[in-house]
Write a structure and sequence with these properties.
The complex is a heterodimer of chains A (about 750) and B (about 260). Chain A is α+β, with helices and mostly antiparallel strands and about 750 residues long. In chain A, about 35% of the residues lie in helices and about 15% in strands. Chain A has four domains: about 105-170 and about 280-360, DNA ligase, ATP-dependent, N-terminal domain (DNA ligase i, domain 1, Orthogonal Bundle); about 185-280, DNA ligase, ATP-dependent, N-terminal domain (DNA ligase i, domain 1), CATH 1.10.3260.10; about 370-575, D-amino Acid Aminotransferase, Chain A, domain 1; about 580-730, Beta Barrel (OB fold (Dihydrolipoamide Acetyltransferase, E2P)), CATH 2.40.50. In chain A, the strands form four sheets. In chain A, strands 15, 16, 17, 18, 19, 20, 21 and 24 form an eight-stranded mixed beta sheet that branches. By secondary structure, chain B is an alpha+beta fold. In chain B, β3 and β4 (about 45-55) form a beta hairpin. The longest helix of chain B has 12 residues, at about 140-150. Classes of the chains: A alpha+beta (about 750), B alpha+beta (about 260). Chains A and B meet through β1, α1, α2, β2 and α7 of A and β10, β11, β17 and α4 of B. Chain A: It comes from Drosophila kikkawai. Chain A: Belongs to the ATP-dependent DNA ligase family.
C-alpha cells in the first residue's frame, strides 16, 4: 500500500518525463542546498532522521491515536527539478553528497573526479560559492590560491567556457577594469529584495546587518531559515555572471526585480556571495595577483592531471609554475583583459601567450611605478655605475594616452580607469604635437594644471577641482598641460621591450612640444651626484615634487611583470628623518578620555601587505590632531564601525581597540624612526620572524583621499624603510636589496 | 468554448482580492469539473491553490480543457467595474488569446463586457499529495486574521504550537513577547464561532508573518478557516467558499534557529 507519507509534491510534468519515478525519500531540505533532492516532504515513516529540534516528544498515548486517525489532507512537497539532468535515483544520492561536500581545498582533490558537474558541462554557481566559502575560512595565502586553482582546473577540464565568468566572479568584476562597469546596488535595495524573498522585515534585517556587519551573512541566514515550496533550478556561473552584468546596466525598479529573482534561486552560501558581489565586496581576499597565480597553477595542474595528485603539483612542478605565472602576469600587464587572455590560455600554448595577447591602443597597460628613496646617495647606491637620467616629477595626474589607427583617443589613469571623458580639451588639440606620420601611439605622461597667464604649473589641488564626468569643453576653467615622459607604442609597434634611451629617441622623433599644451618632461642625463642634487633643487623651484630617476640602457625596458629596474623617486622632503611619509590605514579607534571624551582619542593604524592581502598594525597614534580633526575623524569613522576585527587584520590582542573600522581611510603619517616591535605586525616575517615593525612618535599629517586602503604603504616598503635607516644598516652590513613593486608618493 | 456564470460578482471580487497580493499572474485551468488555479508566489515560499467546482456555477460549460494565463492585477481592475450584485460571466473560445468578462445588472438593463488579453505562463504544476496531518485546527476566520495582524507587530515570524489543550500563537521580538492561546470550544452553539482541534501529535512550527497576513486576505470568503499542520511539512490554510469550492494556501515553515 502506498503510504501518503512517502509522497511529496512533484511537478506534474515529471510524470511524463520519467515514466516510473523512482521512489524518493522525501525530506525537507534544511539547508535548501540540495539541488537534486526533493525539497519538501511528507511526514514520519520516512527513514530520514528528523531534526530533533523540530519535533516535540511524542507520548505513547498520542502515538497510538496516530494510527487510526485519518484526516486526509493534501500536503506539499517538492521534487527534483530537471529529470533530464541528474538522475533521481542512485546518482542523485552521489551528487548530493558531492554538492554538499564540494571542497576544492582537500589534498585528495581531483580536478576531474571531484567536479560533480562533469556530465552537465555547466559549472554550478554553488561550486564557486563553496570554493569561496572554503577560501574565506582558509588562513594561509598559498592554501587559498591552491584551493582556487583546484576549482579553476576543474572548470578548465570540464566546462572551459565557464572559466571567464568564474574568473570575473572571483575578483568581483564584470568586465576589464578599464571599462568601468560597476554594480552599484545600494544596500537598502538588496535588503528589500531579501525581505521580499524570505518574508522578513526590513527593520530586522537592518538591525541584524548592523550587528553582524555583513549583509551577505544575513542574506544567507535569512535564506536558509525560510524553506521553500519548490526550489528553482540551480544557478550556474555563466547565468549569474550575465545577470550581474544586466543588473549593472539597468536602473530603477527593474534592477531590484532582477536582484530579487536571482536571490530567490540562491541556496546556502550562494546567497552570501551573490549579495556580496552586488555590494561590491567579496571579502575572500583574492585580488588580481593571487588570481593570476591561481590560474597559472591551474594550468600546470591541468597539464599534469595524469602524472600525479593535484596537491603534489605545486611541489613537483615548481619551476613550471613560476614560469607560467610570469608569462601570465606579463601578458596581463600588457593586456589586462580576461576576455582575451583566458580563451588564449585555453587554446594555445602558454608560451605563445604574449603574441596572442598583444598590447593595443585603447587598452591600458599597467603603468611602471616608482619607489621612494631617502636621498641622492641612495639613488647612486642603487643605480651605481649605470647610465641614469633624471626627470622632473610633476605634481599632477598620471595619464596613459592612447590613439588607435582610427584616430580615437583614450586616456587612462594610474589605476587604468578610463579618464577620457575628463579631458575633452586634450583630445581636441591632440593633433598639434604630432610630428611626421603618426597613426597610433601610447604615451606615458603626467597631466598638470597650468596657469595660462603666468605660464607655470599649478599645484595638484587645482587639478583636482576639475570635473570628472560630462565635461563640456566650453566650461573648462582649469587648463592643463601634458608632460610626456615615455612612449610605449608607436604605429603598430610595441616598444616596451626597448630601452628607455631608444624609447625616448622615438618619442622625440614623432612628437613635438606645443607651448602650454604638450611638453616633454624636463630631463637631465648625468652621473654626477652634485648635478643631480642641483637638478633636484631646480625641480622644486619649478613647482615639481622632486625627481624621477631611471636607468637609460640597463634593465631599462618597460616590462612591469618582469621587474625591469624600478624607477626611483627623489622627493623634496627627503631631508626629514624618514625618507618619506607613510600612508597608513585606520583600522581601529580608542575612545577618548578627558578633553577628548566623546570622540576617539587614539587610533590604530596598519600598513597593507599586498602579498598576504592583509592589514598589519604598525602603530597607535594620538598626536598631530587638532580637536577639530578628531571631531571630523570620529564622525567619519563612526560610520564605518564594524563589530569585530576583519579576518584580514593582523594584530596583537593587547592592541584591541574600542571600535574596529572598515579599511576606508588612508592617512599620511610621519614618524621619527622605525623600530622592531613585539606587538605590532607590520612586515612581520620579512625583517624578523617574530617581530613586526612599528613607528616611533608617529604624527598625523593629513588624510589621503586620493588613495584607497589597498594603495596604502606596503609591508615591503615598511621593511625597506626600516632597513635603510643608517642605524640599522650599520648593524647589519649585508642589507638585502628589497624588491618593491608599488609606488609610494 | 468555455463559459462560466456566477450569480454575484462579489464572490469573484473577493477571490481576486484573496490571491492578487501573493500572485502577479496565474493560470486558470478550466475543465468540465470546474476551474483550478495553482501557483507559487515569486519567492517560492508559499503556494496558492484555488478550486471552483463546476456545479457551484449558475451555468458552466467547458468543451475542451483550457488554460488561461491572466495578469491578476488587470483582472482585479476589470472586476472593480462590476457592481456586487451583478451577474458575471467568463467566456473564451477554444485556443483563444483573450477572455471576455461580462457583467449584467440584476434587472438586465445594463450589460458591460471586457475583453482581456491572456498570457502564456509556463508555471510549474506541482502534484499535491495527501498527508495525514498531526494537527488540524478549525477556528473563526476573523479571529485568525486578527491574531496574525496583532502578532506581526512583535516579530517577523509566528510560532504555532498545537497541543491537546489548545493552540498557541506566539511571537517574540525587541519589544517583548506575545502569546495568544485558544482552547477548544466546549459546546458548539454557533458553528462559525467554534474552535475545533483534532490532534494526533503535538506540533510546533514557525512561519513568516508576512505570508500569513497575505493569506488572511481571504477572510471575507469564509467564516471559518482550517489550519493543518505537520512537522516539516508546509502549513495548509484553507478557506471554504460556500457551495463553490475552496482556496488553500500552503506555506513552507521557517527553520527555527536558536538566536531568534
Amino acid at each position: 500500500m502506498q503510504k501518503s507519507i512517502t509522497s511529496f509534491f512533484k511537478k506534474k510534468s515529471d510524470d511524463t518525463d520519467s515514466p516510473s519515478p523512482p521512489k524518493k525519500i522525501p525530506k525537507i531540505d534544511r539547508k535548501a542546498e540540495l539541488p537534486d533532492e526533493p525539497t519538501i516532504k511528507a511526514e514520519n515513516g520516512s527513514p530520514e532522521v528528523k531534526p530533533k529540534a523540530e519535533r516535540m516528544s511524542v507520548s505513547p498515548e498520542e502515538k497510538t491515536k496516530n494510527a487510526p486517525k485519518s484526516v486526509k489532507e493534501e500536503t506539499v512537497a517538492t521534487t527534483d527539478r530537471k529529470v533530464t539532468t541528474i538522475g533521481l535515483n542512485s546518482t542523485a544520492k552521489d551528487s548530493k553528497v558531492d554538492v554538499e561536500n564540494y571542497d576544492p581545498s582537500t589534498d585528495s582533490y581531483h580536478p576531474l573526479k571531484h567536479a560533480y558537474w562533469q556530465d552537465k558541462k555547466v559549472t554550478p554557481y554553488l561550486a564557486l560559492a563553496r570554493t569561496f566559502q572554503v577560501i574565506e575560512e582558509t588562513k594561509g595565502r598559498l592554501k587559498m590560491i591552491d584551493t582556487l586553482s583546484n576549482f579553476f582546473c576543474s572548470v578548465m577540464l570540464v566546462s572551459p567556457s565557464d572559466l571567464v565568468p568564474s574568473v570575473y566572479l572571483s575578483i568581483n568584476q564584470l568586465a576589464p577594469a578599464y571599462e568601468g562597469l560597476e554594480l552599484g546596488v545600494a544596500e537598502t535595495t538588496l535588503m528589500k529584495a531579501i525581505c521580499k524573498a524570505t518574508g522578513r522585515n526590513l527593520a530586522h534585517i537592518k538591525s541584524q546587518t548592523h550587528l553582524i556587519g555583513d549583509l551577505g551573512i544575513v542574506a544567507e541566514q535569512s535564506r536558509v531559515s525560510q524553506r521553500m515550496m519548490f526550489q528553482p533550478a540551480p544557478l550556474n556561473v555563466r547565468d549569474v555572471f550575465k545577470k550581474l552584468r544586466d543588473i549593472a546596466k539597468i536602473s530603477g525598479q527593474s534592477k531590484m526585480d532582477l536582484v530579487y529573482n536571482m536571490f530567490v534561486a540562491c541556496r546556502s552560501s550562494e546567497a552570501r556571495f551573490f549579495i556580496r558581489s552586488l555590494i561590491g565586496k567579496l571579502r575572500i581576499g583574492i585580488a588580481e595577483q593571487s588570481l593570476l597565480t591561481a590560474l597559472a597553477i591551474a594550468l600546470v595542474k591541468k597539464n599534469h592531471i595524469d602524472d600525479c595528485k593535484a596537491s603534489k603539483v605545486p611541489d613537483v612542478y615548481k619551476d613550471e609554475i613560476a614560469e607560467t605565472t610570469l608569462l601570465l602576469k606579463t601578458a596581463y600587464s600588457q593586456c589586462p583583459n580576461y576576455d582575451i587572455i583566458i580563451p588564449a590560455i585555453l587554446e594555445y600554448d602558454i608560451k605563445e601567450l604574449q603574441e596572442r595577447c598583444p598590447m593595443h591602443p585603447g587598452m591600458p597597460l599597467r603603468p611602471m611605478l616608482a619607489q621612494p628613496t631617502k636621498g641622492v646617495h641612495e639613488v647612486f647606491e642603487r643605480f651605481g655605475g649605470m647610465h641614469i637620467t633624471c626627470e622632473w616629477k610633476y605634481d599632477g595626474e598620471r595619464a596613459q594616452i592612447h590613439r588607435n589607427e582610427k584616430g580615437e583617443i583614450s586616456i587612462f589613469s594610474r589605476n587604468s580607469e578610463n579618464n577620457t571623458a575628463k579631458y575633452p580639451d586634450l583630445i581636441a588639440r591632440s593633433k598639434g604635437f604630432l610630428k611626421g606620420e603618426v597613426e597610433s601611439y601610447i604615451i606615458d605622461s603626467e597631466i598638470v594644471a597650468w596657469d595660462v597667464e603666468r605660464k607655470q604649473i599649478l599645484p595638484f589641488q587645482v587639478l583636482s577641482t576639475r570635473k570628472r564626468k560630462n565635461v563640456d569643453i566650453e566650461e573648462i576653467k582649469v587648463q592643463v598641460c601634458v608632460y610626456i615622459f615615455d612612449l610605449l607604442y608607436i604605429n603598430g609597434k610595441a616598444l616596451v621591450t626597448k630601452n628607455l634611451s631608444e624609447r625616448r629617441k622615438l618619442l622625440l622623433e614623432h612628437f613635438q612640444e606645443v607651448e602650454g599644451e604638450w611638453k616633454f618632461a624636463t630631463a637631465l642625463d648625468t652621473n654626477d651626484i652634485d648635478e643631480v642634487q642641483q637638478f633636484l633643487e631646480e625641480s622644486v623651484k619649478g613647482n615639481c615634487e622632486g625627481l624621477m630617476v631611471k636607468t637609460l640602457d640597463e634593465e631599462a625596458t618597460y616590462e612591469i611583470a618582469k621587474r625591469s629596474r624600478n624607477w626611483l623617486k627623489l622627493k623634496k622632503d627627503y631631508i626629514s628623518n624618514v625618507g618619506d611619509s607613510l600612508d597608513l590605514v585606520v583600522i581601529g579607534g580608542y575612545k577618548g578620555k578627558g578633553r577628548r571624551t566623546g570622540t576617539y582619542g587614539g587610533f590604530l593604524l596598519a600598513c597593507y601587505d599586498t602579498e598576504n592581502e592583509e592589514y598589519q598594525t604598525i602603530c597607535k597614534i594620538g598626536t598631530g590632531f587638532t580637536d577639530e580633526d578628531l571631531q571630523v575623524h570620529s564622525e567619519f569613522l563612526g560610520k564605518h564601525v564594524v563589530s569585530s576585527a576583519k579576518s584580514y587584520y593582523r594584530y596583537d590582542p593587547s592592541l584591541e581597540p574600542d571600535h574596529w573600522f572598515e579599511p576606508v581611510q588612508v592617512w599620511e603619517i610621519k614618524c621619527a624612526d622605525l623600530s622592531l616591535s613585539p606587538i605590532h605586525r607590520a612586515a612581520i616575517g620579512i625583517v624578523d620572524g617574530e617581530r613586526g615593525i612599528s613607528l616611533r612618535f608617529p604624527r598625523f599629517i593629513r588624510i589621503r583621499d586620493d588613495k584607497n586602503s589597498e594603495n596604502a604603504t606596503d609591508a615591503n616598503q615598511v621593511a625597506h624603510m626600516y632597513q635603510s635607516q643608517d642605524q640599522v644598516k650599520n648593524n647589519q652590513k649585508t642589507s638585502t636589496q628589497m624588491e618593491m613593486e608599488d609606488e609610494f608618493y | 468554448m468555455f463559459e462560466a456564470r456566477l450569480g454575484q460578482a462579489t464572490i469573484l471580487k473577493k477571490i481576486l482580492d484573496a490571491i492578487k497580493d501573493l500572485l502577479n499572474e496565474a493560470t486558470f485551468d478550466c475543465s468540465d469539473s470546474g476551474i483550478q488555479l495553482q501557483a507559487m508566489d515569486n519567492s517560492h515560499v508559499s503556494l496558492v491553490s484555488l478550486t471552483l467546482r463546476s456545479d457551484g456555477f449558475d451555468k458552466f460549460r467547458c468543451d475542451r480543457n483550457l488554460s488561461m494565463g491572466m495578469n491578476l492585477g488587470s483582472m482585479a481592475k476589470i472586476l472593480k467595474c462590476a457592481n456586487n450584485e451583478d451577474n458575471v460571466t467568463m467566456k473564451a473560445q477554444d485556443n483563444a488569446d483573450t477572455v471576455t468578462i461580462m457583467f449584467e445588472s440584476a434587472n438586465q438593463e445594463k450589460v458591460s463586457d471586457y475583453e482581456m488579453k491572456l498570457m502564456n505562463l509556463d508555471q510549474e504544476h506541482l502534484g499535491i499529495p495527501e498527508t495525514d496531518f498531526s494537527c488540524v485546527v478549525r477556528m473563526p476566520a476573523m479571529e485568525f486574521a486578527r491574531i496574525c495582524r496583532d502578532l506581526a507587530q512583535f516579530s517577523e515570524s509566528v510560532v504555532i504550537c498545537c497541543t491537546k489543550e489548545g493552540v498557541k500563537f506566539s511571537a517574540s521580538g525587541d519589544v517583548g513577547t506575545a502569546n495568544i492561546k485558544l482552547a477548544q470550544t466546549g459546546s458548539v452553539d454557533k458553528e462559525e464561532e467554534a474552535v475545533i482541534i483534532e490532534m494526533q501529535e503535538p506540533v510546533t512550527l514557525t512561519f513568516a508573518c508576512r505570508y500569513l497576513n497575505a493569506f488572511t486576505k481571504a477572510t471575507p470568503l469564509s467564516t471559518q478557516v482550517q489550519l493543518s499542520m505537520c512537522a516539516d511539512v508546509p502549513l495548509v490554510v484553507e478557506y471554504a467558499i460556500k457551495d463553490l469550492g475552496h482556496i488553500r494556501y500552503y506555506l513552507a515553515p521557517k527553520i527555527e534557529d536558536n538566536e531568534t
